[in-house]
Amino acid sequence: MKTCNGNTSIMDMFEKGKVLKICAPMVRYSKLAFRSLVRKYDCDICFTPMIVASDFMRSVKARDSEFTTNEHDRPLIVQFAAHDAQTLADAACVVAPFSDGVDLNCGCPQRWAMSAGFGACLINKPELVKDMVRHVRNQVDNPNYTASIKIRIHKDLRQTVDLCQKAESAGVSWITVHGRTSEERHQPVHYDAIKTIKDSISVPVIANGDIKYLRDVESTYKLTGVDGVMAARGLLSNPAMFSGYEDTPLECIWDWVDISLEQGTPFTCFHHHLIYMLERVSSQPERKVFNSLSSTSAVIDYLQNTYGSLHDLGT
């Protein structure tokens, strides 16, 4: 579904019994080229990397470098870091003609974000979150444009439920829950907490955390009853994950080469994505060689010599 011109809403995609598959906001990684790739492999909705709203509004250069899109890049959610309601609403108004919604980052646990008043520290400021959601809803001149939040959980889950209910009362469109506290990194995801939140509000809930294979989408749905599942590292390792591939298929690797060449993806980004994609399908000596390559032509030669082209597969 392509949403544009304010005629249809991303909310129409939420159907009972269907679990939406979503590409997470990832700093440096969930940019246009990667979004174009995962959309070819059954990803329903994509998020931009987190953009600091105040920088975005202050600088044309920041707007041009941080937010690139094209007509095929839909449905698209732009994620902002903000701690001021009007700045968030202003940024939302700028991107609204080119996207389907904005998301407020209330989950980033990195020290720089928390000390600047962004990210996960906002889960302790429910009234501010409520105010920010309300400002976006009131000021974007498109009733179908969404305003969502992405959160982490509290140790005391009652605080998280309170935050979500306050956001719901302000008109939040949906809530993505990373099932860990801001202190937790690789500990197991608290699926019971996600289920409690899902049962406490009536807007859609998206689960985030440890989605590495398509089977994880189904198991997370069974455990929590959520409306969608968001993946980050799992998609970096295998952009075709949502299509059911266990590891990155060769077709997907060559799709990435084509998209990167077409869109002029900088070499470092092009190379880093391939390092992730090949991690599970290559040996350590192969990785050592591949990781040391320093030009696009060297990468393409290596891929053809090591894995072959799609032509060799008869596709």
From TrEMBL:
PANTHER family: TRNA-DIHYDROURIDINE SYNTHASE (PTHR11082), TRNA-DIHYDROURIDINE(20A_20B) SYNTHASE [NAD(P)+]-LIKE (PTHR11082:SF31)
Gene name for this UniProt entry: LOC127362720
Reactions catalysed: 5,6-dihydrouridine(20b) in tRNA + NAD(+) = uridine(20b) in tRNA + NADH + H(+); 5,6-dihydrouridine(20a) in tRNA + NAD(+) = uridine(20a) in tRNA + NADH + H(+); 5,6-dihydrouridine(20b) in tRNA + NADP(+) = uridine(20b) in tRNA + NADPH + H(+); 5,6-dihydrouridine(20a) in tRNA + NADP(+) = uridine(20a) in tRNA + NADPH + H(+)
Designated name of the protein: tRNA-dihydrouridine synthase
Record-stated family: Belongs to the Dus family. Dus4 subfamily.
PROSITE patterns: UPF0034
Cofactor(s), by name: FMN
Single GO molecular function: flavin adenine dinucleotide binding
InterPro entries cross-referenced by the UniProt entry: Aldolase_TIM, DUS-like_FMN-bd, DUS_fam, tRNA_hU_synthase_CS
Active-site residue list: 108 (proton donor)
Gene3D superfamilies registered for this protein in UniProt: Aldolase class I (3.20.20.70)
SUPFAM superfamilies: FMN-linked oxidoreductases (SSF51395)
Entry EC number(s): 1.3.1.-
Segments forming domain DUS-like FMN-binding: 23-285
Function field: Catalyzes the synthesis of dihydrouridine, a modified base found in the D-loop of most tRNAs.
Keywords: Flavoprotein, FMN, Nucleotide-binding, Oxidoreductase, tRNA processing
Annotated residues for binding of FMN: 25-27, 79, 178, 232-233
